[in-house]
Amino acid sequence: MSSTTDKQPLKPLSPQEWELLISDFQQGQDASWTSRYSILEQVLSSILKRDFPVSLKYSLILFMEEFSLLLFQHSSLDQLMNALRSIVQAPLEPPHYTYTLKEQMMVSATSIFITLVDELDSQLFLPLEGLVELLLVIINRPNHSPDRQTRGIACECLRELERAYPCLLSDIAGQLWCLCQSERTHASQNYNLLFTQIVHNIAIHRVNTSILNTSIPMIPFNVPQWILNLGSNKEVSSLNYKELRRAMAFLLEWPHVFTPHGMMEFMGMIMPMALALDLQPSMLKVQFFGMVHSYDPLLCHAVLRLYLQFVDAFDGQEVEIARRLVSISRETQMHLVFRLLSLHWLLGFFNGLLTSNDVMKKKLILGMALSFYPAVFDPLALKALKLDLLALFSVCLETSQPEGENHLSIRSVFEKGLVSVSAFKWMPPWSTETAVAFRTFHKFLLDGSSHSHVDSSTTRKLMESAIFHSLQDMLVDLTLEFPRLVPVIVAFTNRFLGCQKHRYLGEGLLKTLDEKLLPKTLVDHKLLIYFPLFNRIAESDKIPPGRLLELLQELVVFIVKKHDPDAALRSWSQGSKVLGICRTMMMHHHSSRLFIGLSHLLAFTCLHFPDLEVRDNARIYLRMLVCIPGKKLRELLSLGEKLIGVVPSAQSGPFFNVHSPQQPLDPRKSRNVSAYIHIQRMMPLLVKQSWSLSLSALDFGDGKPDYLLSVKDNEPKPNDRGTEGSSDGQINSESERIPLPQEPLRVMDAKISQLLVTLRKHFACIPDFRYMLGIKVKIPCFLRFMSEPFSRIWGHNASDGNLDEVEALPAIYATVLKFSSSAPYGSITSCHIPFLIGEPSEKNSPIDQKVSTEIVLFDNGSHEDDNSSKALVMIELEPREPTPGMVDVFIETSTENGQIICGQLQSISIGIEDMFLKAIIPSDIPDDGVPTYCSDLFTSLWEAYGSPSNFGHETFPLQGGKGAAVIYGTQSVKLLEVSASSLIQLTEHHLALFVVSVTGDPLVDLLRDGGIIRDVVWKEVESDPSGDSTNLITNLESGPLALKYIDEDDEIKGDLAVDTRRSMGCIHILVFLPPRFHLLLQMEVGDISTLVRIRTDHWPCLAYIDDYLEALYLGR
Predict the structure, then answer these.
(1) What is the pLDDT of residue 894?
(2) Segment Disordered: which positions (predicted)?
(3) Which residues sit opposite 1095 in a β-bridge?
């Protein structure tokens, strides 16, 4: 760098600052550092520090080399040399000073010097002499084992300096020759390469110097003055010529010391030396030809380079070279790269033989033809290269045999070679094997042709060749047998059509396909797969359009006869593509040539085609064909392709090139979307809940209600308070447990123990939604919209003004429904509907649109018809509390013309009956044991909710092992004045899934004969229900709610009530309320009334259950 007086004084940078500096330099942000610091002085001083991290020293050396043009000037090379001497001459002291550090510093210093100094001048002699002298000191210790690697690196540095500044070391060549003779370690390769480089430069640049002169000492080293005007030297004298040949003979005795990479370097210098010294190439051939039999690709490559340099010296040995290369390609144990290289070399080798016009050498290729056929299990890349060799062989075969004798042989080679890639017929058209097969077609056809000139004789020869005729027949058969290859065949033809010289080959293939393919194709709906090929045939003005027009007319007649009203879109697509080909013919052919056939086709289409748009377009084309002259007609038809800003569609024909910009959202139109876009439940609610019990505003004093404290963690977790603070009060950490008095150990009887076992098994199946996915509740709904108001607002106009036809109905696309709710239902997943057709106006009658505000009659789902104007929407809830609520629905969709619709739809009501789920069955319960398990579970829960004192303060772990449930039961009663037959019928329709057991002979007979309630426990002898409910209004202080069954002033007398509830039997119903609650119903059925005993561990649901029972059984 230049003077740094205006910069800050030298302040050592920390390792972190060095890493930041290197990163900034690599990102081009070096200005902020170079303006404040002298970077070069900082780098050199840090490298020389003994206590500086060794790993960072390597990074700084590489950084200095990478940015040498920014850090160094010619005047700063002395600083670099001083630092280099300090490191190289420092005593070995691992890990601070090692051989590796010295070697890296030598390499980087040499690289920096060569990068900075392009041309030598006298001012740079001093730093250059210092660098060379230091390196010569290092190498001047032959056979010294500890630093042999360092000496080898120093030799490489000197060789790079000799290569950059030719003949720099020519005066001390004799001294270096002596070192080569003395060195016996593996560094001898580096010494020999250095000496070879010096001799090579002397011979090439013809320097008049003696390499046997050892009178000039190596140290101190002086740069030769004549090196500045190297080009003015005279030719080599006879004495020097002899010395160079003697040095050459010495070097040829040491190939065994070279590694394959060293041999490549050595051969690159030896061959120019042999030419410069007029040596016999046979000397090199005898010395190095044996390397062709090695198993190293570098050595084989070196022999091939020698062959290309001295072709005449290897006359007669081409067979041995070719057979060796073929042998390498067929040895499966070889690396694939080596095998591929051998085939590449063989291709170049044979191309050289073909250009020599030597008949004997061409016969060499013909004699090895059987070796070129790919094996079945060869890799695909190897097959491709072997097929290239077969293509080259076919060219040689065609030019070496007399005319008329080679057609069968060439076709046989072509067909046998394709056997190895014949699987392309059954593979996808984009497969690599298909690409290789069609590449081979192209190679066989054009390998003997050139693109440089146009020769009519070559044109006729290719058109009449056996390969071309065989390829034509093969393409016809492939197109008929494997239609999925049509796009590949079209691309193959386009490759010829895109070449000015070989365009005639593509036209010949299209003509053959027109003559041989079109008469054989079957006219059906699958014919459309050939349309890309038909389009290319229609573009060629050298192919008569008659056959294609006849085929298209047959296709249109087939479409008209086989038209299906449900396939209107397919008919439109097929008709549009037919018209697209007709348009292509009108653009590329004279009107007089296709007038008769095309007019018949267009006339039939505009009269009989089932699609209206196709008929109209055919009528327009027919009028243009009749009324507009040919030249003007082509100008009009090509006008659409010249419009600026309209990108042509990938589909054929002009009917897909419609430029429709996206229209922005109009908030005024989206204001009342709920008036014509409706979402409704599939099954209406029995009770349309107009209220919901919320306890968030109630004051419970210091404590909390029991049902909110029913789940708690098994073990204290210090972070639980903040983790689940938003779970609606149902989950509490260990620190929020209710203070319970210490109780002595209790002794339980066998019955209570069995009940606890059942409860633990049941609660272990209930997931703890705090730590895992909760239980889902699905609400099926329908989305529909009315066509008439939708079209009026969003501008859809039917063609005939009648919205009852399916084709004229509007549609919406890419609909997204988003849901939200203030009720504790968790996150609700959005719903996506790709396509929805509008509902005809006749279905928008107001009948059945109005329902009762509170109660609706039972609906068995008969309204769910198979109609495309309704889309099924499944709302999935994950309740945190079994409570009714409302789900708000928001819609985002788009119309056919790209307009965006956004708005809010009607809200969906969620009732308590939506929360009714069957109890979770453990996986170890067999199917035939499920009824018994459910009955036992009902009994266990009934006892737990009715007599909590028997269970103490038992906790029941939930699934996941982190949370546990505590039972707080509540009970109530409900008298239903309804007949037994009505109650049984309604129970079978609505609650059959939740019935777990039935007791009493009359009731069992009625329900069992009905056949709806199945897989339950039937108890024909009814047990006395009074034993479970004699003390109904007890423990008032333990629960927040207590109801009396019979008041003193009640009109129903006690004896009547007892008689009515004992007359027929009991129905036991078990309902699971997510996330972990239960509802138990014991219906004591009488002839004229039924007493329902209710027990639950979620007392807020009692109010909803009361309304539900009245709506279900009393119709209120």
Answers:
(1) 85
(2) 709-740
(3) 971, 1080
